[in-house]
Amino acid sequence: MIDQLTTSPAFGILITIFAYQIGLKIKNKTNHILANPLLIAVGLIIVFLLVLKIPYTAYKIGGDGIHFFLGPLTVVLGLMLYRQRLVIKAHFLSLVIGITCGVLTSFFSIFILGKIMGLDDSLLISLLPKSITTPMALSLTEILEGIPVITVVTVTITGTSGALLAPLVLKLLPHFNPIAVGVGIGTSAHAVGTSKALEIGETEGALSSAAIGLAGLITVLIVPPLYALLNHLID
Amino acid sequence: MQLIKQFGLLLAFWLTGEALSFGLSTLIKIPGAIIGMVLLTACLSLGLIKEDQIKDIGDLLLNNIAFFFVPASVGLMALNGVSGLDLFKIIGIALITTVMTMVVTMFVTHLLTTAKRGIK
């Protein structure tokens, strides 16, 4: 009977909704960046499945139903980009050049550090999309043939650490203007970082939001050909 | 009903994106959903569709965005062949490169936006 219940799509969807609601409650109570509803929900679900010895494949039946929405979610990021059009227009060239430099820094620093540390190629590839928003990062890792779960986890680590470290960076390097601060946070730490940028200031928040979509787009355009080229050169 | 219609519009953008992605695949590999996103931005900017036509479904998805990442992240429990040392390296690389990316982006954007202001 238990097997029949857990392999129903309703099971995976229901425990995801339940765990996420708990995550939201904890976040609203503590309001700390580490009280991330995603992290809490994932932790709760994994513990729940392991304790009751329910296989991941059973959870995945319902999970896939939720996962499907990443497609429409990626498309709807276009609405987010459209809503930022005035900010983007006002600083278009600075944004594109600044973000492109950030995307290249992210690419080369991951590539070089990964090679130095002897990280397996499949893992290195999975890290490359880590500074962009999850739905776009997952499409990119699919094209690069990376491991989706490594990408999702590193995107979350990146966003959280970016949000935590941004105030520290600004303490050490206090002379950046608000536009630069916003673009820097959005490009390196996507939406989680943006929540911190919004706390720092209005301009910072608006530019950080604008940078999320642009950084994603520039990354998706630049990274696959650049990776193919570098691999070709190294071989 | 409004939501269903708006959802249909999003799926139409996605599918068009997939078709273009397939058509372009010999030249460049771009995910279909991302082409769909660019098309949506373009159609909104050109006034071909109005924000109202996708606003409800858009806000529903965007306001709950992290919820949709949960199943992919739970996949962590089924991950094989990645050692503790690998995870340690991955976290290390993630932290270092995030700060580097942040600082370089801020530095370049600061130079560009400050210079522009000076000229004006």
Summarize the structure.
The complex is a heterodimer of chains A (235) and B (120). Chain A has 12 helices and no strands.
Residue-averaged pLDDT of chain A, rounded? 94
The number of strands of chain B is 0
Calculate Rg of chain B over CA atoms: 20 Å
User: What's the helical proportion of residues of chain A?
Assistant: over 70%
Give your account of this protein's structure.
The complex is a heterodimer of chains A (235) and B (120). Chain A is mostly helical. Chain A folds into two domains: 2-68, no CATH class; 74-234, no CATH class. Chain A is 84% helix and 0% strand. Chain A has twelve helices and no strands. Chain A has helices at residues 2-6, 9-30, 37-51, 56-67, 70-83, 85-90, 92-116, 121-127, 134-144, 148-172, 178-200, 202-234. In chain A, helix 2 packs across helix 3, helix 7 runs antiparallel to helix 8 and helix 7 crosses helix 12. The termini of chain A are far apart. The mean pLDDT of chain A is 94. Chain B is an all-alpha fold. Chain B has two domains: 1-78, no CATH class; 80-120. Chain B has helices at 2-24, 32-45, 55-63, 70-74, 84-119. The longest helix of chain B has 36 residues, at 84-119. The N and C termini of chain B lie far apart (51 Å). The mean pLDDT of chain B is 92. Classes of the chains: A mainly alpha (235), B mainly alpha (120). Chains A and B meet through helix 2, helix 3, helix 4, helix 5 and helix 7 of A and helix 1, helix 2, helix 3, helix 4 and helix 5 of B.
Fold blueprint:
The complex is a heterodimer of chains A (235) and B (120).
Chain A: H1 2-6, H2 9-30, H3 37-51, H4 56-67, H5 70-83, H6 85-90, H7 92-116, H8 121-127, H9 134-144, H10 148-172, H11 178-200, H12 202-234
Helix pairs in contact in A: 2-3, 2-4, 5-12, 7-8, 7-11, 7-12, 9-10, 9-12, 10-11, 11-12
Chain B: H1 2-24, H2 32-45, H3 55-63, H4 70-74, H5 84-119
Helix pairs in contact in B: 1-2, 1-3
